[in-house]
Task: structure prediction
Amino acid sequence: MYKYLRLNLALAGMAAVLASFAEGQSAPRLPGEIAWAIHSDPKTFDPAKVDEQASEMVRYLTGGVLLRINRKTQELEPQLAESYHVSQQGTEIEFRLRSGLRFSDGSALTSGDVAWSLERILAPSTGSVVADEFLLPAQVRVETPDRVSVRIHLSKRVIGVEKIFDQIAIEPANRPSEGRVTSGPFTVTDYKRGQYLRMSRNAYYWQRDSAGRQLPYASGIRLDVQNNREQEISLFEHGQYDLIDGLPADFFSLLERRSPESVHDLGASLNTEQLWFNQSLAAPLPEYERAWFRNRSFRVAVSEAIHRADLVRIAYDGHATPAYSFISPANRLWYNTRLIVTRESSTDADRLLSESGFHRSGNQLFDFAGHAVKFSIVTNAGNPARQRMAALIQQDLGALGMQVMIVALDFPALIERLMHKQDYEACLLGLSDTEPDPSSMMNLWLSSSPNHQWNPSEKTPETDWEAEIDRQMQLQASSASQQARKTSVDRVQQIVADQEPFIYLVYPNVLEAISPRLTGVEPSIMAPALVWNIERIRPGESSGKAEGR
Amino acid sequence: MKTRLSSVLLLLLILGSSLVLRASRYDYKTQDRDAILAPATAQHWTGTDDLGRDRAVRVAAALLIGLTGAGLAAALTTAIAAAFGLLAAFSRPSSGSALMFLSEMFLSLPWFFLLMMVRSQLPLTASPAETAVATFLILAGLGWPACARAIYRGALELRSAEWMIQGRMCGLRTGQLIRRHLLPHLRFLLLPQFLVCMPAFLVAEANLGALGLGVGEPLPSWGSLLLELDNSALLARSGWVYLPIALLVLVLLILESFSAEEHINV
Result:
């Protein structure tokens, strides 16, 4: 009995691995509906409390906003606001609403609703993450001179303040409905936890196409909660899903062979994959290890030894771009085109290490005190590309005599080590960057920030170069001149390339799959990459299998 | 007959794996970056994996590591179980019951999660070889209670056997009695326990490895090799991805046939 119980338990675990091959099921598609998968349940439908991807997607699809960033041109476009004006000092912004705006229940949308929605976002009791972007949310005042005008007073200039309004959904005053009554293109009609979320078109949506036809074109949207990528791809191939946003590289190549017209490689994304060493004085590391990690030559040697072209070719099947900076070349406005970067060379790396007191004995590298250079790289389990990169780096660094152990941890355990215990030596992770403006990266670069991962929450900058990064980031955040901001951001990029607190590895490419039955999709590198113009996406006839296969 | 066939098959697998390791020009960790997911060739007999590592060498090494590790762990767990079971059987009845209650308690724990918890506490800098030893030691350390219960029952019955009473009357001490007389008689219990534990430990290691908690990379193990099956994009590119699961099932069937045969003999 015991024998069978143990074997059955063990085999059940193995079956979980194999279960991913089973073909998934999805809710039936309604006529005119567009369907795709989200990878977790939305934590909230309240647009003011959004703080994760699935909820953000729901807000994007249902929330009407004053201004919207055009994901293709990266420029702001008026939406519910017909026009807007920012004062010269940057402390006052005035919106004028379109006339005849209505919520999805037919009630009128006025400046009172806008003021109420803004004040709700700014109230500390709401706990909105958007509020922090106003820098001093408690000191923001909202006025409504008439039914179509809204005036906002800030106590301090906020660079790019207009862009914040892309994230603020306007709701009916005093009637928060969690997406049921909206001013955006869709409204939430049905939600089954862990299964699907259904939305239907807002009959009172304000936008029309050039022929005068009311948008959105699609009658509705179905988002299946589906965290199994294999099933997602299988359902896409069978015509059950219309889109896959963020296709893993392996599957891109697979789908490309079967249906080349449905996959799109948009080139480098704004996201980065990087390796960093733990330099925190609070980390429970031996002093000699901390000394390696705080040594610039050690970090640069590691960077020089890593063959990024191999990472791209092997880990990403060619669907990534070698990275040397925290700003991707896809971010044309901010990328430093004159950046002087590390040259990949094992010989240079060897020389740099020996100049810093490291020496080889056989296949092992030792520091000047005779400690064998041996450390672990932690990464998250369940990301094959990242794990392959770790294995490739292990061999690259092995060529320098470094003994590297790879440890894949589940995400909560990894975050616990990184953010709370700081109990790790090196980490390989990616950062998603949804906003091209470098102001959004302040929490990463300021030395006092808890997200300054290589050495979080420094009381004062521990090195001159970190102090300089702080200074330049503050400068770019407060300067009104675009040229001055660019100069500061270029300077930060060069300091980071010289000091390598983060060793940038690759920018994964934006890989998307779009069913040929859809028209009007304009893929973008900014999230939501495929559905940013959802109101103009037109579903074609549904079929059992993906067309064009 | 069936046991003989199984023994021959197992021996062939062990010999074949050893031969592959000796004859191949590649080792289990060297990445041939110009031969990623290469098909079977004269250089790579069963192709390469997604990092260009020779699949035949890695599968052969995983087979030998798995069998050695699971075999040693099964031997250790059987020894712990025998010691615990005999201690309980030869203690005062109240102490024996208390010890068995302890093992029942241990048995009721969610052992797979316990296994994951204990394994995740290993230092991050543990080398792949150390993780392999630790993984199988943890399996041995957690696998003994059910086995101990069976041995306790068997030893209790044998304790009042005539030949035991006679031994005691001849002046043999408990230790001598156990070593010279009891253990040989318990062979019919110990061997099946060993044979049952071995495949269970192999599968447990494979599960831990599939969760990223088994033997550390780049040392090959069933767990890390089976992880490839979790990626259907890879499955479409190379049929050789199925080689590890096919061999693991074969090894498990062989080991199961040993234990089944032993049960029949009992």
Summary: The radius of gyration of chain A is 25 Å.
